[in-house]
Specification:
The complex is a heterodimer of chains A (111) and B (116). Chain A is mostly beta strands and 111 residues long. Chain A contains no helices and eleven strands. The chains are: A mainly beta (111), B mainly beta (116). The interface between A and B is medium-sized, with 22 and 25 residues.
Chain lengths: 111, 116
């Protein structure tokens, strides 16, 4: 079983729609969680951190469920510029700084 | 300010050739990471430096892969006797960590390696 699993998609969504991605992780001791965005042939960039209390940044909402080892990302009122691959990322534990990435979910917003 | 830079951006190598990939982290960033991203996959960890010390090299796929950061700044990832399965994007990231917490990792544009 992979440490971080996500549906690779692709998700093709009309502009203005709401889309949700999910991700599960296997290491229950994992400490920190993130969503990164990666545009085609570009480097990954941090989109937002994910907290148990949930956090929102404009049209983006991220949620963590530690009991189910599950992370979600919700995008409201999707825009053409949201088209990208969204990577679910886990920081396993303190003292080891490496990040563990999922395979990414590819999103295309259709005009 | 300047971000993480990597060179070369593209490298075509013949199977069996040695290659060296360079990473210039953000100035002052103590931690430096190398990741390998195969087509259609997420980045996978290769190795991690804190200053000049290589603290984790558990992700290096074979002894053909070697990384160094002799002065705690620029890092080089060397691949000896390249194989076709080494074809991937090699990403470098740096962060300004404090012990016991996670700091955002900033990624460079990557080096696309194609082994023929």
């Amino acid at each position: 079983r992979k440490e971080v699993e996500q549906d690779p998609g692709p998700f093709n969504v009309p502009e203005g729609a709401t889309v949700a991605f999910n991700c599960t992780y296997s290491n229950s001791a994992s400490q920190s969680f993130f969503w990164y965005r990666q545009d085609c042939r570009k480097e990954p960039k941090l989109l937002m951190s994910v907290y148990s209390s949930g956090n929102e940044d404009g049209r983006f909402t991220a949620q963590l469920n530690r009991a189910s080892q599950y992370i979600s990302l919700l995008i409201r009122d999707s825009k053409l510029s949201d088209s990208a691959t969204y990577l679910c990322v886990v920081h396993p534990n303190f003292g080891n700084e490496k990040l563990t990435f999922g395979t990414g979910t590819r999103l295309t917003i259709i005009p | 300010g300047a971000g993480v830079s990597q060179s070369p951006r593209y490298k075509v190598a013949k199977r069996g050739q040695d290659v060296a990939l360079r990473c210039d982290p953000i100035s002052g960033h103590v931690s430096l990471f190398w990741y390998q991203q195969a087509l259609g996959q997420g980045p996978e960890f290769l190795t991690y430096f804190q200053n000049e010390a290589q603290l984790d090299k558990s992700g290096l796929p074979s002894d053909r892969f070697f990384a160094e950061r002799p002065e705690g700044s620029v890092s080089t990832l060397k691949i000896q006797r390249t194989q076709q399965e080494d074809s991937a994007v090699y990403l470098c990231a740096s962060s300004l960590p404090t012990s016991g917490s996670h700091e955002t990792q900033y990624f460079g544009p990557g080096t696309r390696l194609l082994v023929l």
